[in-house]
Every structure is written in C-alpha cells, then in structure tokens.
Design brief:
The protein is an alpha/beta fold and 564 residues long. It has helices at residues 6-9, 22-34, 51-63, 77-84, 101-110, 133-144, 164-167, 180-194, 200-209, 214-227, 235-242, 247-258, 262-274, 279-298, 313-321, 324-341, 347-359, 373-408, 420-428, 432-440, 442-450, 455-458, 481-488, 491-505, 516-528, 535-542, 546-555; strands spanning 40-44, 90-94, 121-126, 150-156, 171-174, 197-198, 232-233, 464-469, 473-478, 510-515. α3 (51-63) packs antiparallel against α4 and α10 (214-227) packs across α11.
C-alpha cells in the first residue's frame, strides 16, 4: 500500500509518545525498571486513547534485549519483530470475532508452551468485553495462574460488561480522554514533520471534535489535509470536515436570541442548514457554547476546560452583556429540545420552535464580570457622597413630609359586597322546613365535597352554617369575610355544591354567602321592611336555632315541644 493513514504511521512506539496518559505510563515504566511485571493487565477507557498501543509497547519493553529498561529500544530484533508483527509470541486477538468458548480453550491449551523467540509470550485481547460468559469462565483459571512466561493484556471500552471475577485477577488501568491541548501538541509535532501548515484555530476545532480520542483527531487531520486545496488547512476547511459550527456563527446566533430578534435567528439557522449542517450537531454546539460562557462568567481562568469556545473580543463582550439566568434558561431549553429530537422525524421544526421560544424567554439582570467590580465600587462611593450632601440640604424633611402624607391616607380594606337583593328574596320565601332540609344534609354534603379533590374549598365551610332557606336557595353565614369572598367567587365550587345537593336532597339549591358581621344588619333591615303583623312570623322563618334543628332531625316534630 502506497499510503498509510496518519494514525497508523504515527502510532506510539514508546511510552513517551502516549500523550495524556502519564499516570499510566509512569506506573508501567517503574514496574519495568523494578521488574515487578504482573501476569495480567486490564486497560480500559474511551476509543483512541492509547490502550492497544500501550499494550504493544509493554510487550516490547518486557521482551527487549536491553531489559530491564523503562522504554523499548526499538532497535533490537525483538522490538523490531513485535513492531512489524513477525514474532509469533506476541498474539493480538480480536474478542469481537473470537468470542466463543472454543477460541479461549485453544488459548488455554497453548499458553503452557514456552515462547519461541522472546522471553515472554504476550496475549493482547482487544474488546475483551465481547467474550461470552462461557469464554470468560474458560479464561478464569488460566488468567489467575498462568505460566511464568505468559502475560495477558486485556483492552476494553466497556469495563462494566466484564465479570468482576475477571477484573479482580488483573491490574486495572483506566485511560482517560485526552485533553485538547495534548492533542494539539501531538498534531503540531506531526505537521512539523510532514511540512503541512495548519491554522491554530483549525487545530482547536479538530481537537475538540475528536472528543478526547487521538485516533479520531488524526483521522480528522488526515481528512482535512486531503480536503485542503493547498498546503495550509484553514478554519473553514476544518469546520467542513468536522461538521462543526463556527464560533462567529454561534456568537451571532446567541446575540440574536439575547436581543430577541427572531427573524435574524431563524435566518441564521436557515443559512446553516442550507450548507448541510446537522440540526442535532448544531444544538449540541450551542449547549457547549453557553456552557463555556457560564464558566467564563464564573472564572475567566477556566479557559482550559472550555469545550467549544476560543476566547476572543466578541465572546468577551457578549459574555459581559448576558446574565447567568439567561444562560441557565438557554441550556435548559436547548437540552430539552435535544432530548425531543431523538423521537421526531422533523428535527429542523423542533429547532426552529426552540429558537422562537428562547427569543421570548424572560431575561435576568446583566452579568457582572470581575473586571467591572472596581468601576462599580467607585460609582457606589460617588452615590454615597451625593446622598450625604442631599441629606444635609434637607432631604430628610422631604422624607418626613412623605411619611406624614402617607399616614393621612386611610388604608382601604377590601370587603365582600353581599348581593342584598338576592338575600332578601330568599328571606321573603324562607320556611323552617326548607332550612331543616338543608341542615339535615349539610354534614353529608361536606363529606362528599371533601372526597372530590376540593378539600381546600370544603374547609371554607368548616366554620359556617345555613341560616335561611327557600325552596330553591339558601343563605350561609361565614365567620370570616375572606372565607365568604373566596367561596362566593369560586364558580366551580358553587356549582359543585348545587350538584351535590341535587343528588342527596333532590333540589339543586343555589347558595348565597353572608359574613357574620353583616348578617345581623341584613336581617334587621329585612325585618324592618316587613309589615308589623307579619314581623314575628317572618322572623321565625328566617332562622332557627341549631339545637332545635338537630332535635327535630333526631326525634321528629311529633315528639318534641319547644318552649321559649
């Protein structure tokens, strides 16, 4: 093959070349120098972080003719043979395609044979989590007590799928995602050797698009080199290859949302989709953009933790004007839309709706950057001096006058206005029998009301009582004005009471409420309007003592005698 991909040409051949994993390479180097090599290792971590490369370097180091050394010499016969794969004692196995019991049994049978060319026989099992349960069980005993000349190195991206009995027999090393700065440093080394020029911002875009994987970064760099029309990789070419969105576009979009320019935001989205960008990738970039903006507001020194943003003047200016509450709302809204996009056939429509909603969200106060603190302190001191001068010129007397004026204004208290005409009409047609009928069903009605998810409304009637009733309506006296007002202004509450009484009493009574402090006045006014001959009769119709009503309900009219 005439051409090899960059990640193959530049595969690490020494521990020093495995960037971003110093906590692992240093441990392995010390173990090599001290000759404390374990019989089994487990390398776990995300893709493209150096697991298989570190395994091959370890295999070369233990078999190097100059051992014990912390780095393979890559010059002796053993190192060169392991590098080109010509030494059969270093066996690489793909567990994804060799995951059966028979394959593992074959390994178990062959480990007892001594190596042919080098000191140690090394088995590198890649994607070991793909082995079946039976294969793991077949490997257990051999993995725990292999011959002295055998070393197992297991590599996986999903360690949680490996049985604990396997993990406990290995020294485990967790490879972490490589930081963008380390990826950029490695790419600069490669570009310097190849003679290709790349814009620094383009390298940042590629490094962040790789998501912590060196192999992904070198693949994207290889693709960008092929895509480039000359010997220099531009920012636009890096954006096209990675499918990312330029920071200037995200800044313009954030600005449009912040000032609520819906038309501008939708036009920017239309332009982006027209050149083939993915809505799902766009919304992910926006989430990271606002996340980096929030980190910059918290502390500008956290730029090393940024996922998307390269700090420039436009970004700093926008960050000063946008509040943290606005950023919280943006991240929450975008994250919700991203979740909904997984279940829709129209992601573009969801994204457009999300932009419209975000343009209309309420904005909090402006963010205050650390650089503004000194200016604000000066303004506060100036305002304090001006306030002192105003006080000395009589501002206190003005405040006293305002307080006196406020005291002359009598506070207005909202009082429930009773519909006196309706109440008088009920009193005019009220009878003792109708009042008795209402009171006899009152407790039952309250119980039913409490079971219909209206317990709070039913509580308003806990300290009230019916005081008069006609054939189709009744008056309830409330102890407190506020309870009367809340009950009578709740239409659903009144309709529910009428419906319950229709079911248990046979009549859909209408209820009118009267506060206790107004009832006596309304009653006396009604009685004064009646004729002298009928005054006593109407008074008896209006209200009956609760004790008498209860006695009538328990014993009946035939068995009781009422004496004043």
């Amino acid at each position: 093959m005439g051409y090899q991909a960059l990640y193959r040409v530049w595969r690490p051949q020494q521990f020093v070349d495995v960037v971003g994993q110093e906590h692992i390479t240093k441990t392995l180097q010390n173990a090599l120098l001290q000759q404390k090599i374990s019989h089994a290792y487990l390398f776990s971590g995300p893709r493209g972080t150096g697991k298989t490369s570190a395994a091959k370097i370890l295999a070369k180091a233990v078999n190097c003719e100059k051992a014990p050394i912390k780095e393979p010499c890559n010059e002796c016969t053993a190192c060169l043979g392991i590098t080109d794969g010509s030494i059969p004692d270093v066996i690489e196995i793909d567990a994804a395609s060799n995951n059966g019991v028979e394959e593992i049994r074959d390994i178990r049978d062959k480990v007892k044979y001594a190596p042919n060319s080098v000191k140690y026989k090394v088995y590198i099992v890649d994607e070991v989590h793909m082995l079946s349960i039976g294969a793991f069980n077949a490997l257990l005993k051999t993995l725990e007590e292999p011959p002295k000349h055998v070393i197992f190195i297991l590599a996986t991206t999903e360690p949680h799928k490996i049985p604990l009995t396997i993990i406990s027999r290995c020294q485990r090393f967790d490879f972490k995602r490589i930081q963008p700065q380390d990826i950029i440093g490695r790419m600069n080394t490669i570009l310097a050797d190849t003679g290709i020029v790349c814009n620094e911002k383009a390298l940042h875009i590629i490094a962040r698009a790789a998501e912590g994987g060196m192999r992904d970064a070198l693949s994207l760099l290889d693709q960008a080199i092929s895509f480039s029309s000359n010997d220099e990789i531009s920012v636009e070419e890096a954006l096209t290859v990675t499918g990312s969105v330029s920071q200037s576009f995200l800044t313009n979009l954030a600005q449009a949302i912040h000032v609520k320019e819906v038309a501008v935001a939708l036009q920017l989205l239309k332009d982006l989709l027209a050149i083939g960008k993915d809505p799902v990738r766009l919304i992910e970039d926006m989430v990271y953009y606002f996340r980096d903006m929030l980190l910059y507001q918290v502390s500008p020194d956290l730029t090393d933790s940024f996922e998307k943003v390269i700090v420039d003047d436009e970004f700093v200016e926008l960050t000063r004007r946008i509040s943290s509450d606005f950023i919280y709302g943006m991240i929450e809204g975008l994250n919700k839309t991203q979740q909904e996009m997984k279940w829709t056939n129209h992601p573009r429509v969801l994204l457009e709706v999300a932009l419209v909603k975000l343009c209309h969200q309420e904005q909090g106060t402006s963010a205050v950057m650390p650089a503004d603190v000194g200016t604000l302190e000066k303004k506060v001191e100036m305002l304090e001096r001006e306030l002192s001068q105003l006080k000395s010129q009589g501002i206190q007397s003005l405040g006293t006058a305002k307080q006196a004026l406020a005291k002359t204004k009598s506070p207005t208290k909202k009082v429930y206005k009773v519909p006196i005409g309706k109440v008088h009409n009920i009193l005019k047609n009220a009878t003792k029998q109708d009042l008795h009928n209402i009171k006899s069903h009152w407790a039952e009605m309250l119980n039913i009301l409490g079971t219909q998810n209206m317990k709070s409304a039913a509580a308003l009637l806990s300290e009230s009582e019916p005081v008069a009733a006609s054939s189709d309506a009744f008056v309830v006296k409330f102890k407190y004005d506020i309870h009367c007002q809340m009950a009578m202004e709740n239409t659903r509450f009144l309709e529910t009471i009428s419906s319950i009484l229709a079911n248990i009493a046979g009549t859909p009574y209408a209820m009118e409420g009267v506060p206790d402090n107004q009832w006596k006045e309304i009653r006396e006014e009604f009685l004064s309007n009646q004729s002298t001959d009928g005054l006593q009769e109407e008074a008896e119709k209006v209200e009956e003592e609760p004790l008498v009503a209860e006695a009538r309900r328990l014993f009946g009219d035939e068995l009781i005698e009422i004496n004043d």
